[in-house]
Amino acid sequence: MDPKPLSATCPDPIKRGWLRNDWHDLTFLHWPYEPDAVQALLPDGLTVDTFDGKAWVSLVPFMMRRAGPTCLPKLPYVSDFEETNVRTYVVDSLGNRAVWFLSLDCVRLPVVSFAKVLIGFPYFWADMTLDIDGSKITYATRRRRWPRSPAALTNVSIDVGKPIEPTELDVFLTARWGTVAKSFGRLWFHAVDHEPWTFHDATLIALDDSAMTAPGLPTPIGGPIVRWAQPVHARFARPVRV
Predict the structure, then answer these.
(1) pLDDT for the residue 75
(2) Is 139 helix (H, G, I), strand (E, B) or coil?
(3) CATH number of the domain residue 226 falls in
(4) How far apart are CA 174 and CA 178, in angstroms?
(5) In sequence order, what are the residues at sequence separation of 6 or more whose Cβ sits closer than 8 angstroms to the Cβ of residue 53?
(6) How confident is the model at residue 162, as a pLDDT?
(7) Sign (positive/negative) of CA torsion 135, 205, 155, 24?
(8) Of 44, 46, 129, 184, which one has the greatest count of Cβ atoms within 10 A?
(9) Nearest to 30 by CA among 177, 169, 210
(10) Which domain holds residue 197?
């Protein structure tokens, strides 16, 4: 099917999902890639989505809050945690323009186990800190070498600037109202709904990262596009097979 049109607001709002996430202190670092390099890492049934002939891969460190099933209250210890993910942008067989995760590093082992085994997201257990000093935010992530995890670390420091209007590329990279995961040998689309993103420009102060190359990508070329996002409250619908 042809890709569905992009929209800065969710085209199919979810009244009550089965999972909820609040995303705080989230930074996007986006790099362009040759489409063939990204397509080689995707399973059958997904096609890399492109903007002006380029695929894109993003490094996204942030703070997760209130994570868990909507039927339960916030759970001590497991509902709040730091996370860093590496993601790219795909189109599935139903035309959904979705996020495909290449890796997700998380400090909570129960979350890693649940999402990896039952949902199919490529989670890894990691150590991570997030420090805020005025407009400066520093993220430090080091993946634990268990079980059979490829080594990866991420150290990012940014300086958050003023709010900006999203560009057409910003919408392409972030107006993704769902993710695709592979679970039990099948692909599943997980629809998501949240407020429209509000972005701030941000300056990259320092970057030392190997999470981008750990899945098999070449080293990104040049500096990334950097955006800091105001918090959003996300709801996930139950997955649909694609």
Answers:
(1) 87
(2) strand
(3) 2.40.400.10
(4) 10
(5) 35
(6) 97
(7) positive
(8) 46
(9) 169
(10) 19-241
Q: Is residue 232 part of a domain?
A: yes
Per-residue confidence (pLDDT) for residue 154, from 0 to 100: 98
Q: For the chain, give the number of residues.
A: 242
Q: Is residue 181 part of a domain?
A: yes
Per-residue pLDDT tens digits for 11-68? 999 988 999 999 999 999 999 999 999 999 999 999 999 999 999 999 999 999 999 9
For residues 42 and 148, give the distance between their C-alpha atoms in angstroms, rounded to a whole number: 21
- Which residue, among 131, 211, 139, 225, has the nearest Cα to 174 in the 3D structure? 225
Tell me: cis bond preceding 32? Omega within 30 of 0 counts.
Answer: no
Residue 44: CB atoms within 10 A of its CB come to 7
Which phi and psi angles does 240 have, rounded to 5°?
A: -120, 135
H helix or E strand, kind and range, residue 119: none
Q: How many domains is the chain partitioned into structurally? A: 1
Q: Three-state DSSP class for 177?
A: coil
Residue 35 lies in a domain: yes
Q: Answer whether residue 118 shows pLDDT above 90.
A: no
- Do the strands 26-33 and 225-229 form a parallel or antiparallel pair, or are they unpaired? antiparallel
Cross-strand pairs, 27: 228
Q: What is the pTM of this model?
A: 0.96
**How deeply is 218 buried, as exposed, middle or buried, from its count of CB atoms within 10 A (0-12, 13-18, 19+)?**
exposed
Q: Assess contact for 131 and 34: CB atoms under 8 A.
A: no
Where is 240: in which H helix or E strand? strand 240-241
User: What is each CA distance from 5 to 9, 30, 58, 179, 242, in whole angstroms?
Assistant: 11, 21, 21, 16, 18
The reply to whether 63 falls in a domain is: yes
Residue 74 CA to residue 90 CA, distance in Å, equals 32
What is the percent of the chain where pLDDT is above 70?
100
